[in-house]
Amino acid sequence: MALSNDTIRALAEHLETCELQARDTLKLTDAHPEMDWADAYAIQDAILARKLARGGRLAGLKAGLTSHAKMRQMGVAEPVFGFLADSFSVPEGGEVKTAELIHPKVEPEIVFVLKRPLAGPGCHIASVLAATDFVLPGIEVIDSRYRDFKFDLKSVVADNTSASRFVVGGRALPADELDLRTLGVVMEKNGKIVGLGAGAAVLGHPAAAVAMLANHLGRRGQCIPAGVPVLSGGITEAVAVQAGDHVCLRIQHLGSVSLRFA
Ligand code: OOG
Ligand code: MG
């Protein structure tokens, strides 16, 4: 770790205040170029701790930057991991208050829910499938706290990987009834198709992203808990949205899920 505990706490407070007040900021590495990976995840953990201390709950986990489309869009080359708080959850068909966000974008994702906790080392696609209760469609709303969505990997990890809102819905199916690689994905904004893809866009198989998350958590003495949504990462580029937009995600065999931006 290159940063002191006081600095980590102060940066967590700064980033969470930006989140709660919908204000943007410069990426952390501009002022703290020495920040290392442990610092970045420690800042993310401190943001979660702030929410838990106020009575919030951990509602899920996410992997991000797991597709070539997303890595190319953001100019980075490695996946990152973050958390979902209960306050991020939007009911199926529900409304996101756009004024609470800075510059939201939506992503089509395949969501896993596990029937038993999973932790690395050594997790792979088969371990994830064996532990999976069901999969279902989910839309993630990301909202980087960094100006113009410009960041490097450590800064985006500290900012909880831009996590902001999410909705899951559609039809939940056991993963063993599906070939998750060839599942077709169609995302529509206001009735127009804005993203097209298949599950294989995420690391060749979306369960590979969940395996990476389990291995990451195992290294930190943690696990993926059972029974919570785990977002495996955007299949297409993220699409900017504004007030008035309606977004619908359809995934082959898994039905659809939608939300509105008010
Ligand atoms: C980082 C979060 C990316 C995904 O699914 O790839 C992400 C960002 O692009 O702001 O959630
Ligand atoms: Mg995402």
Outline the structure in words.
With 262 residues, the protein is an alpha+beta fold. 27% of the residues lie in helices and 28% in strands. The protein has seven helices and twelve strands. Strands 1, 2, 4, 5, 6, 9 and 10 form a seven-stranded mixed beta sheet that branches. A five-stranded mixed beta sheet has the order 3-12-11-7-8, with no helix packed on it. Strand 11 and strand 12 form a beta hairpin. The longest helix is centred in the N-terminal third of the chain and has 17 residues, at 5-21. 2-oxoadipic acid is lined by residues 62, 64-66, 70, 74, 107, 140, 142, 144, 156, 161-162, 233-234, 238. 2-oxoadipic acid binds next to strand 1, helix 4 and strand 5.
Summarize the structure.
The chain is an alpha+beta fold and 262 residues long.
State the shape. globular
Largest beta-sheet characterization: 7 strands, mixed
Number of β-strand runs: 12
In the CATH hierarchy, the architecture is: Alpha-Beta Complex
Structural class by sheet pairing and helices: alpha+beta
The helix/strand order is: HHHEHEEEHEHEEEHEEEE
Residues in helix, %: 25-40%
Bound molecules: 2-oxoadipic acid, magnesium ion
Number of helices: 7
CATH topology: Fumarylacetoacetate hydrolase, domain 2
Any key phrases for this structure?
binds 2-oxoadipic acid, alpha+beta, Fumarylacetoacetate hydrolase, domain 2, binds magnesium ion, 27% helix, 262 residues, five-stranded mixed beta sheet
